[in-house]
Amino acid sequence: MADIEKIKKLRSLSGAGxxxxxxxxxxxxxxxxxxxxxxxxxxxxxxxxxxxxxxxxGLIGISENTQHSSILEINCETDFVAKNxxxxxxxxxxxxxxxxxxxxxxxxxxxxxxxxxxxxxxLLTLITKIGEKITIGRxxxxxxxxxxxxxxxxxxxxxxxxxxxxIVSIDTNDxxxxxxxxxxxxxxxxxxxxPLAIDVDDIDQTVLKKEKELxxxxxxxxxxxxxxxxxxNLGKINKFMEENSLLNQxxxxxxxxxxxxxxxxxxxEKLNIHEFSRIKIGE
Length: 283
Known about the structure:
Blueprint: H1 4-14, H2 18-27, H3 32-50, E1 57-64, E2 68-76, H4 79-82, H5 85-100, H6 105-110, H7 119-130, E3 135-143, E4 147-158, E5 161-171, H8 177-193, H9 205-220, H10 226-244, H11 259-266, E6 272-280
Antiparallel strand pairs: 1-2, 1-5, 2-3, 4-5, 5-6
Helix pairs in contact: 1-2, 1-3, 2-3, 3-7, 5-7, 9-10
């Protein structure tokens, strides 16, 4: 059996369990560097077996600098692991790196973390140590160039990590307090009402096609004539587009108004909502 002190050292370096460290040291003739490589290879094997499982829990990280802001989803299998310190620390550092590489997945995986190992190797080590499927999910980066970017965390877990995050950019030169308040409220509105696009014309045509098919299928069972079905279908799809386009949604702070009405009332010249991203764990 390997020396107990070397096992302890290997555990601290790799995060692997006692038995795995002991076996790796035996296999490497007590060479710690070789043992780390053995564990890494075995970790890949163990990780691949876990990747077929579902991972619907996790955290959303939002990070920013003077040039851009980014949102990133890091998934795991259980809420218990999502609250694990190792997972939280990994997600937090990963969020910062994701912002630096502007949500470029290949660059993210190959970038070194604080321990001088790249993200991909650290991900595999974490999967082996924790024993759950862990994946890097959706991400988006918004530029600050001539734009104001606002963020919102719902169900904050720690620091820049939550269960639901929103970033939204506004095209304006205004720096007033009312703009800052609106930006914060707008990000909260997006979190609550989950719009599909900024305006009706921006909604994905594939989504609209699917919705039309669902409505038509439902109306066919009603026994109504084709002309009436077409009129009802048109009304329903128009309502769907209105309810799912940000500018036409009822303002969550004052439902009698629409978002586009609130924009006008701000009376800020050349004010436009440019882009947004909303990510919720489990959706």
